[in-house]
Fold:
Amino acid sequence: MKGGGNVAEEKWEEAVKEEELREGVPVAVKLEKKNVLLVKTGGTVHACGGKCTHYGVPLKDGVLLGHVLTCPGHNARFDVSTGKAEAPPALENLAHYETKVEKGKVFIRKAGKRASSAREPSTKGSAKNTETYIIVGAGAAGNAAALTLRRNGYEGRLIMVTAESELPYDRPNLSKDFITGEVKREWMSLGPPELYKNLQIEVWTGHKAINLDARNKTVSFAHESQIGFDKALLATGGIPRSPAITGTESPGFFLLRSLSDAEAILKNLEGAGEAVVIGSSFIGLEVAASLRTRNVAVHVVSPDAVPLARVFGERIGARIRRIHEKRGVVFQLGVSVDEIAADGKGKTVKLSNGKSIPADIVIAGIGVVPAVTYLLDSGLVESGAVPVKGTLETKAEGIFAAGDIAIVPDPLSGKTRRIEHWVEAERQGRHAALAMLGAKEPYAEVPFFWTKQYDTALKYVGHAKSFDRVVYRGKVEEDDFIAGYYEKEKIQAAAGCGRSTDIILIGELLKAGKGPSAAQLEDGGVALHDLLRMKPD
Structure:
């Protein structure tokens, strides 16, 4: 029997007693080398892989709603009845097992046909389809789109182009475990070369797009080549801002956006004892934490009075500052950098308040701007970014945009949003790919991101451009809390530490338009699970 997994030869293995399974409660078991998750939903027992395919987080503590299980790590979603990955950051499906119940015992065996997987494609390119789809950008959105197109039946030519020399890689780890040295270079890849080869995805590295002709549907590149397309996804991400000061052109100053940036920083850290980080952004503070893990002395310079207060509010921002100060970071807040001056082999960073800080290395993390220079003559750019419809299609038919460059309709607020976070970009890439294949549903994901600084992980769900009230459940000082961000008594977003389940549930409540109200969130006695069962007002 070919291609069917040799089901007849698979042996049934006893997993658990049926009485050990309760409706809607995942149970993890280990059988030989297999980590398996068993779930009873609607009276039927399902079995799938027990670890998230993103970072290997155990799924037994995830949130199960119907057949959909959300990972407690970074909110990837899976259908437990098939093992299929329903939402990034997971791009690969879970193993899928058949189940049977006999004499009060649950048995499993590997399913004959696994749900389609990023590493085991259900479809490859085919000469029967003469269309060409091009993806400009190989970051979060571009990579997710390419895999989604192939796994959902696109058989034409598929090209993903990138100005970088690398295949798609895990960008969020650049400022975290890659800088600390915990993650090696070979672990950063989102897939081996064989993955793209097997899927017949052409990855053109070293191809910088310089112009897109939306009318004639062509993309031109810096080395004077050009390609035509039938449909395109624009997913070029962001370009890091550089402070407008003297000294940024000299050796020892860095921006951090790419793998090559991170490798250059690591090379210059050899023998470095002191560093200055410009900016108290997520990137800036994650880099500061990573440098302290390497025992490098760190000064963080920022015009902000409280780090990340604009996103998290002053109370949580102050807590983040204390976490860093406990590890030895020195903050210079309410000031800016005037100049980076050469000082022998090192540097002197001169501040607006007259202070000077010696440094061996200076790293700026002050945000990004959408990478849309190649689109300036296309007619697609407005206010420095690309507005799209609910399907993520631009004003030009057959041309879509996703990720950092896309201004997306927000079904929660009725306005628009542009968010520079990895999971949002991946989910937009997936949605755009399905729309390229004919899907009409508007993008309706609730944004999610996380930041990890030392051993503290903060998660955020929703999108609050502004807020006039913050409501807390739990204890901020003990890193065990949920904070809800409200504007005119309506919740916009929530942040949490140590409470993954609550973050997942609030995301579902936001998506369903069910609150919670400030009183419901603040009152620890109101279960968020119960609110999901209530009908919206």
About this structure: The radius of gyration is 24 Å.
